Amino acid sequence: MVVAYQPRSRPRRQSQPKPRPIHRPRHRQGIDWRPAKRVAVGLLVIALALLVVYRYGEINRLNMQIRELETSRQVLHEQHSQLELQLARLTSLDRLESIAVSQLGLRYPQPGEIYFLGHIKVSGADRDGN
Q1: Residue 24 CA to its chain's centroid (Å)
Q2: What are the residues whose beta carbons fall under 8 Å from the beta carbon of 89, sequence distance 6 or more?
């Protein structure tokens, strides 16, 4: 014969009814925090609103500064373009040649006034201009 092991069952406790919380009127509990919470939430909302207004003011100020800098950049870009044109005009070879001849009294050298320094070997093809 086979006998199965059965643990001893514990005696069950009889459930006791839970005690009901004692209902106390609110005026006896101490300070009523509801108005203070409302004031704190109101102050928090006002502070956040002021923060948002301040940030929008900062954004507006920075946008104005960006516009001023872009305008300044555009003016400087135009000045740069004008200066490049002026530089090209002042350094043109025709202008420099006319100043050298008229103001400095320079002239082109005559064929006999040109001297080569050093040993330069010129091939026959180069002499003919080919």
Answers
A1: 61
A2: 95
Residue 22 one-letter amino acid: I
Q: What is the mean pLDDT of each run of 10 residues along the chain (130 residues)?
A: 63 71 63 89 97 98 98 98 96 93 91 81 58
**Cα(24)–Cα(28) distance, rounded to whole angstroms?**
7
Residue type, 73: R
Q: 32 with 26: CB under 8 angstroms?
A: yes
3-class DSSP string for 94-126: HHHHHHHHHCCCCCCCCHHHCCCCCCCCCCHHH
pTM of the model: 0.47
Could you give the 3-state DSSP secondary structure of residue 27?
A: helix
Q: Are 86 and 92 in contact (CB under 8 A)?
A: no
